[in-house]
Fold this sequence. Notes:
Helix content is 16%, strand content 28%. The protein is an alpha+beta fold. The longest helix is centred in the middle third of the chain and has 15 residues, at 172-186.
Amino acid sequence: MQDAPPETETGDRSPGEPQRAAPSWLTEPPNNSAPETEFGPTLLTSRTVLSVRGAEAVTFLDGLVTAPVAAMAPGEGSWAALLSPQGKVLFEFIVYRDDDGLLIDMAASVAVGLMQRLSLYKLRADVTLAVEQDLAVVVASGAYPGLEPDARHAGLGYRGCLARSDVGDGDADAGERAYERRRISLLVPEVPADFDAGVVFAHDIGLDQLGGVSFSKGCYVGQEVVSRMRHRGTARRRIVGVRAAGELPARGADLLLGDKTVGTLGRSADGVGLTLARIDRLAKGAENNLPLKVGDADVTLFLPDYATYSLDAQAAEPTS
């Protein structure tokens, strides 16, 4: 359910502009198929499943979230978010359509908050919201019955909502850690795991890059802001990856270009960190090949394999 990306992105070169040499800290993405990131069918204990049922379930959710819920076929999934009217991400999740309505795969820590928010919008709509205690979010690096390719990035393997009784617990902690290493290495962000809710825009975390936003469906909460950022090319903060020789600092550490803060670190694993950065400022700093650090750690930087944006030094820096 992914719309085509805009023809130009922040950091694209003007027609005929020569390609500049890349700074020393800009590198290729790491090898994301490393054997140590493989995982069998694993219950993600940090996730929970909500259901949205009733005669108006599909139209109800379609009118609220960024994904084209009404256009999804049974069995299909999409990344999605519920935004504030100002366009900030309040909740992000994967939504699946089934024969009885919709299932939402989301962070367990904020599930109650999403239920409360959806209840505010429900009014008299024929919609029932519930936590599905008998279902679990299950992932696997290879094909597994009942799972489909992850709706955000094929490299994440397979994912779905299965009955808990159908999947053994196994070593859930080890499986979830392996999945997290894969997610971080592919630079697929999650809220609030990597960045706080109510702080980032849809474009910041790549919802537009990974099929989580429809630019062709009807209205939803925060749509005007998302559409304006797309058509005016004003997305300045984007997801990038950083690598260090050792372990990186904790989530929330500053990404420093010279002595200026240009981004914030999300989660990291094995010296690779998922980072939200001002790509316009990175582009300008790259002209002078300024040192790049997270905390005291020297880092190199790489772009996601899904990125339509670049670090071209011709990007203009806004005043705000």
